[in-house]
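Predict structure. Input: DONS protein, 555 residues.
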Amino acid sequence: PGHSPGFKKPPALLRLKRKRPGRWSDPAAAAEAAASPAPRGPSAAARRRNPFSSLYNAPQRVPAAPQPPAAAPAGGDPSAAPFWQFLEPACEEKPSRGAEPAERSDILALSQDLHSPLAVPKAPSSPGQEFPADWSIKTRVLFMSSRPFTWAEHLKAQEEAQGFAQHCRAVQTTLPPSVQEPRLSTELRCAFQQSLVYWLHPSLPWLPLFPRLGADRRMAGKASPWAQDEALQQVLMSDWSVSFTSLYNLLRARLCPYFYVCAAQFSVLFRAAGLAGSSVPTAAIAPTTRGLREAMRSEGIEFSLPLLEESRSRKQKNSEESLETETAEGLGEGSRVEDAGEPAPSDDDDDGSFSWLEEMGVQDKVKKPDTISIQLRKEKHEVQVDHRPESLVLVRGSSNTFTLLNFLISCRSLVAVAGPQAGLPPTLLSPVAFRGGTMQTLKARTVSGRARVQGGFEDVFSLEVLGPVLPHALHALTLVLAPAQRGSFRALLSPHEPSAAFNASPAPPQEGVHQDLPACGLQPKTLDQLSQCPTLGKSSLRLLEMKDYAYTWKA
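Output follows.
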């Protein structure tokens, strides 16, 4: 054969090469290396450098310090323990690490990051009787407590029907501060069913209609008969326009507090007058692009970019403070202060007259930039915020929101023209009934587990709620859980990230006009919470804890 015999068995050849002494500069070291047997196993492979890796991107392995088991708090309430301990199966005492699936390993790593001091952007709030309003849509909420959630499972047919009736009739449910036997409380179970209801359009059970941003992979392969049928697309869009107009009319009549329009490229939140500290109806759009904003300007829609303006004002304030500090301390010479105080070159100078070229006599030899290039250069800062939270657009006033309604109905970018979502109208989410809307309920299930405590394990219980958890539903669930769990539970919140920008304040600070919304279908306490001016900015709640009927949270 025309090749080396060692080519057939490369592992044997590698073993021979491993046993050979390397090129040592010290003969004694080479002799010692030849006399000692070659190490085998993963430890030897870990010491050798990968020849295909760069010296700069090689991973630095730091030995992890052993973590002591988390102990229960002084009160003995395991609900204050880290939530990943609740994932222990009740039937196992101590599962082996090799048997843990990859999904659970990811969950453990994520939970450790969330609870590490470096991963929490803000310190926990001080205890209060209420938590701030969060206008982001939650995809999953996990409630945990030391008391069982058996009262939330296996609802009777009569209790389920009563919960639906209470929701449709907007019945105000008043629960006692503490319920001794939650499983036997029909009033509590009906209130729980009432808090799970929301309204949706269109209703296509085989398609996941929320979230719509980045949902192409989940929708791929699903049946979509309207994708190639223009007549069917027009019927769906006509029906959607009727439902959209119905919701807006309810909002202007203060019979609907808010609703969401979830498209494939952006989401819109319409809020009635009196919510989020605003005395006029508002609409927030996020994320947006320069093309969408230009189309809105051409339609005469007046809007603002509150997060971008806030960021610019903060940078300007910081620069002014740093300039004052440098001036006060006398750092550097006068030239340094003058350079800091000079205004930044304006983009308007770039498209100024080219008379200086004529003066030099080279106006015909130099290629001048065209108008489009000049315009793009001027708007480069605005383009940089596209698809980011800072691109949030805020529309205020009845006339502007009505113009926005007509603009969205006729907007071509509202419906995707290609991909799995082609021809599918946006998703409408509302807390109250509207024309063409379908009643839906959030999926809730109870899970029992064990948590590590000092001296062994202790039973811990959880309630998982899946689906588009709207702002009013989160508050309604806490009103039900407070008496059922006797004022002690913890909630882990998973928000839909693009909707976190809706927590920007829609009203100027000096505006404080209160508008009554008595017949909007929400509980009075929930309405009071949503009427407050948002304080979370572009972040959202991640952790919510109630202890002794007082809330603390992290964003």
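The radius of gyration is 31 Å.
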